[in-house]
Amino acid sequence: MARTIELYDTTLRDGTQAENFNLSVEDKIKICRQLDRLGIDYIEGGWPGSNPLAVDFFQRMQEVELKRARLTAFGSTRHFQKPPERDANIQALLAARTPAVTIFGKSWDIHVIDALRIELEDNLQIIEDSLAYLRPRVQHLIYDAEHFFDGFKNNREYCLATLGRAVAGGAETLVLCDTNGGTLPHEIPEIMARVRQFLDETGSSARIGIHSHNDSETAVANALTSVHLGATHVQGTINGYGERCGNANLCSIIPNLELKSGGKYRCLPEGNLGRLTGASNFVNEVANLRSFMRQPFVGRSAFAHKGGIHVSAVLRNPRTYEHIPPESVGNEQRVLLSDLAGRSNIMFMARKYGYDLDKNDAQVMDLLAEVKERESLGYEYSAAEASFELLFFRTMGWTKTYFKLMSFRVTDVMQEDWNTPFIEATVMVKVRGSVVHTAATGQGPVNALDNALRSALESAYPNLKEMRLADFKVRVLPGAVRDAGGTASVVRVLIESADKTSRWTTVGVSYDVIQASWRALVDSITYKLFKDDPKKWPTKAAKKK
After folding, report:
1. pLDDT (tens digit, 9 = 90+) per residue, 346-368?
2. What is the value of pTM for the model shown?
3. Are residues 232 and 102 in the same domain?
4. I need a surface site. Which of 54, 57, 496, 541 has the fewest CB within 10 A?
5. Do 360 and 494 sit in the same domain of this protein?
6. CATH number, domain at 196?
7. What is the pLDDT of residue 178?
8. Has residue 390 been placed in a domain?
9. CATH code for position 412
10. What is the C-alpha separation between 176 and 148, in angstroms, rounded?
11. Nearest in space to 346 (alpha carbons), one of 326, 360, 332, 327
């Protein structure tokens, strides 16, 4: 029978200590709901006594029903000079009215002496006092042994004594924390064995947990090793967000335990593992951060194949180059287009668009040659699938034109006493038989062009109003410098766009950054119109069999 592993998510506290990771109260509530749907056991909401926003969050959460997860308040042991009933931190934990409370205490003797500046015995006393006071007042009580692994290596007997006092105080779970993230996997077995021996000797039934940081790139490995050695409670964050180099990444820990241990462990409710990629993307979206494409399991590139030989093999049998089925974690297989592409890449994309083409089909060969030629000029279709999709359908015979450029002009005026330049774009296009001439200003030439083009098209295509530019990247291509020197280099522009339901990326290349931007922008708007067009050609009946 599979052993159940408790999952404790600390994205809302430890995760928010990451650089550039900020969440409003409303954001935290949204993430709580998402983690509850995923099947997380404990959601650490933060430190109630730390700031007014934390207090507001816990008050708001009183009206939020979580179906599975237990909201958890986090704080420290009492101040040495104050009993628990007069300690503001302890009282704030109780005021949060959460079913679970986690408090941390010092395990490393140098922290007791140099940080708290109290005697070693005094630290043991405040650990036990704090837990004993909380025990009858909360449903679940968790003790985080801060700096446990460093403390063990420095003074193991004292470090174990802190666990003993936590048990005496009533902690049901003892979490061993690698707070500085410096422990390596080969160090875990000896320490875990001694902890288990110590608990057996004291007759404790407390469960062992692991809380690892990623400063040595070993947080996930340390968590997995600890579970294999008996830990049944794992703390971490979604996508590994956290202070410095981050925390243990639950998006890697969960599938490793569920899919690679021969059915030995169960982390999420049956059928919920397929929600993992969605949860990962949701947290990124709420935090307004770009996803890490190469993140294992849930990253967009986790099951992406580029080389023609690899693609040919994976289409015959995905196991040849995929360690798990992508759909098991809610991800998908992707095939990238580049100068490394072969006919298998083209055929895979064709099937994705509803075509069953033969590898010797002339259109396959034409499209492959076109992709390789364009990539040699600087286009990158592996990062701009929307531009490739438009190229594909044009090769298949799609000729519909939503609008036609007649001319555009960008004026960029800057005077010595101005703080910002004045930028105006003028666009003339033919749309549905009429010539439309518009002008617009913007914050930068691309924004001005985008505003002018939308102004020209929105009366004919109202759905463009729901579209927005989400990201814009310019890169000077190495080896593409012309005779005039670096300022005349070829540049590649990638534009990421979004609407209510999807995101897509388009590409433009030129020695003129405005022209490259225009090409990517036109593709972006054309793709929006194409994907929303109920009458776009070809229809399924016209597709090759």
Report:
1. 787 888 888 888 777 888 888 88
2. 0.76
3. yes
4. 541
5. no
6. 3.20.20.70
7. 98
8. no
9. 3.30.160.270
10. 6
11. 360
